[in-house]
Design goal:
Blueprint: H1 7-26, H2 32-62, E1 64-70, H3 74-97, H4 102-122, H5 128-152, H6 156-179, H7 190-241, H8 246-269, H9 281-298, E2 303-307
Helix pairs in contact: 1-2, 3-4, 3-5, 3-8, 3-9, 4-5, 5-6, 5-7, 6-7, 7-8
Length: 317
Amino acid sequence: MRATISRKALDAITCSELDLRLQGVRGNPRRGPARKRAQSLRDQLESVSISMSRDAVSIKAADSVASKVPEVTLGFWVIKVAATTLGETGGDTLSMTLGLGYLTSTLIFASALIVLAACQIAAKRFHPFLYWATIIASTTAGTTLADFADRSLGIGYAGGSLLLLACVLGSLGLWYRSEGTVSVNTVSTPRVEAFYWVTITFSQTLGTALGDWAADAGLGYRGGALLFGALLILVAIAYYRTRIAPATLFWTAFILTRPLGATVGDFFDKPIAAGGLNVSRPLATAIIAAFIVACILLIPQRAGTHPRSASAGSPHR
């Protein structure tokens, strides 16, 4: 509690009295020693005040834990939408353009995801390029996995979306039961990070299925992008205007950015007759990848933080 005493409070208590003493000794040459003692006392009190202020800053820093994931800012969402768009074009490049099929492409991207997620979990701190590479691996794996579930397994977009929604809710439920929170700001231990990446992968896959479902339901790629963009605006309004738990809004927005990116990706590479731009998938993938690299370099990348004492026990965090 001593560290909460500010320099201003100490000055309010002591400076008036010390100033009076100093003023009294200035006009009296016989009181030189008293003046020196008073000045020495004031210097000591100022030193103690500065030391306490530094201790308060140190205590505050010690009570915070750096997360392994980036701080959620506008820049985060810009890169996230671009990464999901890259996931759509990159996943379709392997499965369709190169003709590897959904299952083989899923195995390739899932293997890359496992390796990158293991490196991310093993890392001691937040690394922007490693984090976003893992995100891209999860979104490409999500693209081909959703296509495999919807088309190869024959359960359709509605069935695939419901199945993946159950996976997302199950992952979040297990995470909350284990940690008492599903806040991304608490991702600082291997166990929490494992929950995080499992939920991320299911969310990416669900978003892909939702995007394809909306596009094939008659909205088209532009209509789907407008729909999910409008829903994201509503989530942003809810964040600032309501008391809905921020963690709930984050995961809602995270899921919705995936179909937004998927419809934008389809808009790039689909034929003009189908409402797209007819840009080749490999070229679109290269353009979006360059954009993501530029964003990572130009947009400040900071790790999120959270209080040590608040790492569990609150669903609102």
